[in-house]
Design a protein that fits this description.
This protein is an alpha/beta fold. It has 11 helices and 9 strands. Bound molecules: glutamine. The site of glutamine has 13 residues, from helix 7.
């Protein structure tokens, strides 16, 4: 079978299983199966596939057809300005989280040197994007998942920022190293009972550890706010990603811990998504 027919056949299987972008996904999975880029596929669409490559491609299509996200099948996801390695253990970087990067870059436009902490680095997409954009900044990242830290480390090497990065395996409540000019976090913030209503691709395949915010969705946020207020320098900035309906509760938690609210920012879908505040 040639490349083009295999892609069409794959797309049809995905379409029948209600996958949203069947043709594009099929093409991307072909690039993975034969280890070539999209341009090669377009220019060589009539080329006959090796049996092994075809088998591998069909396996990928099968996995995608049961909802496994493309990023987990290709082990990569583009975020902000770079392609990040991801694994089944990391949350897939979201376009909405790019808002957090935008806000941090706005805040630090004229800063030369800052000590930045990220609580819950996951793939490293937030902290490493900042370190790449701001050459003089120094980063510390913590996560409870060792496999996330391993992926963050690989990404730091890929983005050439590993010399300015320290990673720690730690619970948020136990961490007590350093003082920071800026702290950022995109903690798990989905209510436990709502996890099952997420998109099937998310609910079935993305790590619960990265999503589950406990009974009221705020259990990680509470700890992150408390810890940040201890580790942040006076006048330091704290940037937090939140759930669409958590604004009021989170603001009151922040105020209690001595933060002044600078702004609440909306994501691409017009939901409240990112709070910027200052420790006073
Ligand atoms: N900081 C990572 C991200 O935003 C991981 C966040 C998480 O796992 N909750 O993608």
């Amino acid at each position: 079978m040639n490349i083009n027919s295999a892609i069409i056949q794959g797309a049809k299987i995905l379409k029948d299983r209600f996958v949203k972008n069947p043709f594009l996904d099929s093409e991307i999975l072909m690039t993975k199966a034969i280890q070539k880029d999209r341009k090669y596929i377009l220019l060589n669409s009539k080329k006959v596939l090796d049996k092994e490559d075809l088998n591998y491609f069909q396996k990928l299509i099968k996995k995608r057809s049961i909802g496994k996200p493309i990023a987990y099948l290709t082990n990569k996801k583009f975020f902000w300005d770079s392609e990040f390695i991801v694994s089944n253990d990391t949350l897939i970087p979201r376009p909405d989280t790019e808002l957090v990067i935008e806000k941090i870059l706005d805040l630090t436009l004229y800063k030369k040197k800052l000590n930045v902490l990220e609580i819950g680095v996951g793939s490293g997409c937030i902290l490493l994007s900042i370190l790449k954009e701001r050459k003089g900044f120094y980063g510390t990242g913590i996560d409870i998942s060792k496999s996330c830290l391993n992926i963050s480390k690989l990404n730091a090497i890929k983005l050439k920022v590993s010399s300015k990065l320290k990673l720690y395996k730690s619970n948020v409540d136990k961490f007590a190293v350093g003082k920071y000019d800026l702290i950022v976090s995109n903690p798990p913030y989905i209510k436990k009972r709502d996890l099952k209503y997420l998109d099937i691709d998310v609910a079935k395949f993305e790590p619960k550890l990265a999503l589950d915010g406990g009974l009221d969705g705020l259990s990680a946020i509470r700890k992150v706010i408390k810890k940040s207020s201890e580790l942040i320098k006076k006048n330091g900035k704290f940037i937090l990603e939140i759930g669409f309906d958590q604004k009021n509760k989170v603001i009151s938690l922040l105020k209690k811990e001595g933060f002044y609210i600078n702004s609440i920012n909306k994501d691409l879908a017009n939901n409240d998504r990112c709070i910027v505040c200052t420790k006073i």
